[in-house]
Hints:
N(2)-succinyl-L-ornithine binds at residues 142, 176, 236, 276. The protein has 316 residues and is of the alpha/beta class. It has helices at residues 13-25, 49-60, 93-102, 118-122, 125-133, 148-161, 183-194, 211-214, 223-227, 258-261, 283-286, 293-298, 300-315; strands at residues 3-4, 38-43, 64-69, 77-78, 91-92, 106-110, 138-140, 168-173, 198-202, 218-220, 232-236, 268-270.
Amino acid sequence: MKRFLTVDDIGDLGQALKEAAEVKKTPYAWDTLGKNKTITLIFFNSSLRTRLSTQKAAMNLGMNVIVLDVNKDGWQLETEFGVVMDGDKPEHLREAVPVIGRYCDIIGVRSFASFEDKKADYEEEILNQFINFAGVPIISMESATRHPLQAFADLFTIEEFKNKERPKVVLTWAPHPRALPQAVPNSFVEWMKVADVDLVVTHPKGYELSPEFTDGVTVEYDQKKAFEDADFIYAKNWASYEQYGQLLSQDKSWTVDEEKMSLTNDARFMHCLPVRRNMIVTDGVIDSENSIVIDEAANRVVSAQVVIKRMLEALK
Length: 316
Ligand SMILES: CCC[C@H](NC(=O)CCC(=O)O)C(=O)O
Ligand SMILES: NC(=O)OP(=O)(O)O
């Protein structure tokens, strides 16, 4: 495994979920696999869960871990090609990436969508500089268009908590004070489309995700109708794709509340976190016994450990 970005990179989903269950059951069974191997985790944006869970997963495998906050450590990095570097950025990514690649065996990268250039974001220009120039395997820790470690953990969590063969899973947009990336919903849809679930996506008009992800997916503009008989409710905010990066609505009628959850089949509530309480979801719902957001976050160690384990096995 040279990169982990899309659902295709994990291979057979059934096998990956079996491996995840095994890793969760015996997390230290491969604690020498990473001996004398180093993973560098590079953050262009903030993180709690990804930062801690990916370090934990690497340590479970016996690896050395380096964490780099680009905006705090090292030099300000220029990411544009062809510019005259006479500003406040002393180093280009084109040099920094292969240099970092010489100090480690695997790199994890978090670099959110810029919302400045839709084409550059959706062509994954930043992440591809790592994939093309680092010389070591690359794990997306949320890129401009995807968050695969999150989606893998989300699917594994649904597998753990489902009480029927093909559960109804609803991805619902919810209001937020800022314009957030489409990466989490994109990956959620990408993974759920190939999983054994009945997926419905619900959001206000104008918040359609890129067709590359939602082609063939049921989109329901009536949130309450979408919630009917649902087994899992996955809430997330995202900015408009069509009017790229725009905050078209903060319509609080889309906040996930107890009344809407009563329309479901006693559904579990999920969110990748961090979550804006009483914007995305009411306190009553996220504090209820139906909420599995903490178990979902705990499973981020599992998804990261499966991916890193496979990369280490390929390095042997
Ligand atoms: C895992 C989620 C990371 C990120 N979330 C945020 O940036 C939330 C920031 C905020 O609530 O102000 C996102 O929506 O992609
Ligand atoms: N869900 C998730 O990736 O959380 P962080 O942004 O805190 O890493």
